[in-house]
Design a protein that fits this description.
The complex is a heterodimer of chains A (349) and B (358). Residues 1-23 of chain A have low confidence and may be disordered. Chain A has a two-stranded antiparallel sheet. Chain A is built from 15 helices and two strands. The two termini of chain A are 27 Å apart. With 349 residues, chain A is mainly alpha-helical. Chain B is elongated. Chain B has helices at residues 7-13, 16-36, 39-56, 74-90, 105-117, 134-142, 168-182, 203-219, 235-248, 260-272, 288-295, 307-324, 347-353, and strands spanning 63-67, 93-97, 122-125, 147-150, 162-166, 191-197, 223-230, 252-257, 280-284, 301-304, 333-336, 339-341. Classes of the chains: A mainly alpha (349), B alpha/beta (358). At the A-B interface, helix 4, helix 7, helix 8, helix 12 and helix 14 of A face helix 1, helix 2, strand 7, helix 9 and helix 10 of B.
Chain lengths: 349, 358
């Protein structure tokens, strides 16, 4: 396998190979290698944000507040993980938020009957999880079909499923949340240490996804596809089949995201994922992935997601006008993209 | 002025092009199929087909065109039931049409134009924007079609027959009273409360908040509104907001959830932290899910609007004017009070004011 694009893109290069003017640029090289390490910068940014909010409200560093941020993080990061695979493969998935809503509503319908029959909560949630995952995977399949066989570009294909999913969720639910499952809320709040147990499930999913993206052949193919589709095809990768699997994975994780929203709200709300596609893409971009495909780190997405949810909660805790949240996210995205442009040997995102 | 909490957020957030590109066809198909399967709306679907004949009017029945904000919104579904029942009892045709889910002038204007092309006897409309829908209303009046506004209104009401709406300011004040009662308000004590809204610009939100704050200022000096935040019509965001408040204000005594999405998010937060009954949650809109939570005491009170009555009165006034050609007995503006539902409300009241779901 000649998967060179994949193997080199992921590892941040220490310095540009050919330096035209060595002595004069030495300090710049130093600055560049720091700037080039997006993970490090993100960690610094996250630490600085936490310290800032802590200085405004000391309650920010309490375990209760950390649990709040992680609860919010869990519903977002599943969408962002799927989005990372899609963006690395050179595509984009705008449908993740509406898929979460749609899957959540369908899952809630399937669970409502069981709840009213007083079936065991574990059984109800297992069925709901399977339904949500299946609906999400189904939407992913539709995306892949639109891209592979109708030849739509991913942006348009997933824009179509975004609208269809959001609209269907509203039409089916008549605009109101489905279910009032208090048992599910309480069940999902059972603590393991300071955090509720769904957090640990999400951590498990993150570990598996990281291994899959960065250490498996599947991940290498995904990077290869995003770097150069023709080369990937020439190297013997079944591009269509791989795209199907990437979009199905994204849909499946979005469906699970819908299930997490159900656990938080005790209902499947038709607008529960509205706008989350932009937050998911923001997490991926802040994490350092290029929208051109072929580069990105899942750890970056995770840090990006943590930064977004920290800002959201921090602004509320410190009682800042919540509209600043959107401004803050916009600034973060611009900064992350600017960093990427400054990094050596990178294409502009 | 209605609550745009859930359905309309799609309209607010997505570009109009999105629907055109992606979902208009799907939505239209879904909506019409779901409607034809429901007996109550099948008749309105039928009237659409016959309306041209009815409207041309030689000896036929009167035809009332009713253009609401968003068909899938439970608020308008309830309004539809009131309008349908009144149309049936008065023996007139009702054309019930609006965008399936988008609360937006961009999608509403073509629908009004199409309705007017069918020359209905009267037009009842909930304008999604006071200025954008003014030309359509003017055109109807110029064609001799009387116009009634319901829920929301166009900027110039001078030639509009009647405007019927709920009183959001009074609803906000009623929410303050209900919250004070649930907290067993005693003068001299301090009560920290917060308000979850959807956006800073939604007119229903601002009117309710103004009413809430005015009532507190007048009657409950001990209640302190500590914070307000926006959910952008997303229950999960509302949930995050409330979770953070409960961490920030461990002594929080009350939450005013100003619309449906905030009600869902706040209700879930209280249940998750076992604070039901300890924090007085007053919500807005009698969605069936909210009423179920009210009966579990998760809500201390729900403020319900009366869309069924709004729809009924709109049809009644339109038909009365068409039959008598006189405006006497028809109020130019009518404001219906919001209703307070509590866990102690009678089953009959709960049943009457719960918004139906199709």
């Amino acid at each position: 396998m000649t998967m060179t694009p994949a193997s080199t893109e992921g590892q941040g290069r220490a310095a540009p190979a050919a330096d035209p003017n060595p002595p004069a640029t030495e300090p710049r090289d130093w600055a560049r290698s720091i700037l080039g390490n997006q993970q490090f910068l993100l960690l610094v940014a996250l630490g600085a944000l936490i310290l800032y909010f802590y200085s405004k409200r000391s309650v920010f560093l309490s375990s209760g507040e950390m649990a709040n941020i992680l609860d919010d993080f869990c519903s977002l990061i599943l969408l962002a993980v799927g989005e990372t695979f899609v963006i690395v493969s050179g595509g984009i998935d705008l449908s993740v938020g509406s898929t979460a809503s749609f899957a959540g509503v369908i899952g809630a319908f399937s669970m409502r009957g069981m709840v009213s029959h007083n079936d065991s909560e574990a059984l109800v949630l297992v069925v709901g999880t399977i339904v949500c995952a299946a609906v999400g995977a189904g939407v992913g399949l539709v995306n892949a079909a639109l891209i592979n066989w109708l030849r739509l570009v991913p942006f348009v294909a997933t824009l179509a499923t975004l609208g269809a999913g959001a609209g269907m969720a509203i039409v089916l639910s008549h605009g109101i949340p489905i279910g009032d499952d208090t048992r599910a809320i309480i069940f999902s709040q059972a603590k393991v240490g300071p955090f509720s147990w769904p957090v640990f499930i999400v951590i498990g999913i993150l570990v598996i996804s990281w291994l899959y993206l960065h250490l498996s052949r599947y991940g290498r193919y995904t990077f290869a596809l995003g770097s150069n589709e023709f080369a990937a095809r020439a190297a013997g990768i079944n591009v269509r089949r791989h795209l199907v699997s990437v979009y199905v994975l994204s849909g499946l994780l979005s469906g699970l995201g819908g299930m997490f929203l159900y656990l938080r709200l005790g209902s499947g709300a038709p607008t529960s994922g509205a706008g989350d596609e932009l937050r998911a893409i923001a997490a991926v971009v802040i994490g350092g992935a290029s929208l051109l495909g072929g580069s990105g780190r899942l750890s970056g997405t995770i840090l990006g997601g943590l930064i977004l949810t920290t800002v959201t909660s921090g602004l509320i805790i410190s009682n800042v006008n919540p509209n600043w949240d959107q401004v803050a996210v916009a600034v973060l995205i611009a900064l992350a993209a600017a960093l990427q442009a400054l990094r050596p040997g990178r294409r502009r995102a | 002025m209605r609550d745009r909490s859930s359905v309309c957020s799609i309209g607010a957030r997505r570009k109009a092009t999105l629907l055109v590109l992606a979902s208009a066809g799907v939505l239209a198909a879904c909506s019409s199929s779901s409607h034809s399967s429901s007996p109550s709306t099948a008749s309105s679907g039928g009237s659409t087909a016959t309306s041209a004949a009815g409207a041309s009017g030689s000896g036929g029945k009167l035809t009332i065109a009713f253009n609401m904000g968003a068909e899938a919104d439970p608020f308008f579904i309830a309004m539809n039931q009131g309008a349908e029942a009144e149309a049936k009892s008065l023996g007139v045709n009702l054309i019930w049409q609006g965008d399936p889910s988008q609360y937006s002038p961009a999608t509403q204007i073509p629908i009004v134009d199409q309705l007017l092309a069918e020359h209905p006897s009267a037009l009842i409309i909930s304008p999604t924007d006071p200025d954008a829908l003014q030309p359509a209303v003017n055109q109807a009046i110029a064609q001799g079609i009387p116009v009634v506004n319901v829920d929301t209104h166009v900027t110039d009401l001078s030639k509009v027959l009647s405007f019927i709406t709920g009183d959001n300011q009074q609803g906000g004040a009623a929410a303050a009273d209900a919250m004070a009662a649930a907290m067993h308000y005693t003068a001299g004590q301090t009560y920290q409360v917060v308000v979850g809204a959807s956006s800073a610009t939604t007119t229903t939100n601002t009117a309710r908040l103004a009413g809430f704050k005015a009532e507190i200022a007048a009657k409950y000096p001990g209640i302190k509104v500590m914070a307000e935040a926006y959910s952008q019509s997303q229950p999960a965001v509302a949930n995050t907001n409330v979770n953070n408040w409960l961490t920030e204000y461990p002594n929080l005594k009350g939450i005013f959830a100003i619309d449906g999405t905030n009600a869902s998010g706040a209700a879930a937060a209280l249940q998750a932290r076992n604070l039901v009954g300890k924090v007085a949650l007053v919500g807005y809109d009698a969605y069936s899910t909210n009423v179920a939570l009210l009966q579990k005491n998760v809500f201390a009170a729900l403020i319900a609007q009366n869309p069924t009555e709004e729809g009924k009165l709109a049809v009644q006034y339109a038909v009365q004017y068409l039959n008598t050609k006189s405006t006497s007995g028809i109020p130019h503006e009518q404001t219906l009070p919001n209703i307070v539902l509590t866990p102690n409300s009678s089953a009959a009241d709960l049943a009457q004011y719960t918004y139906p779901t199709a």
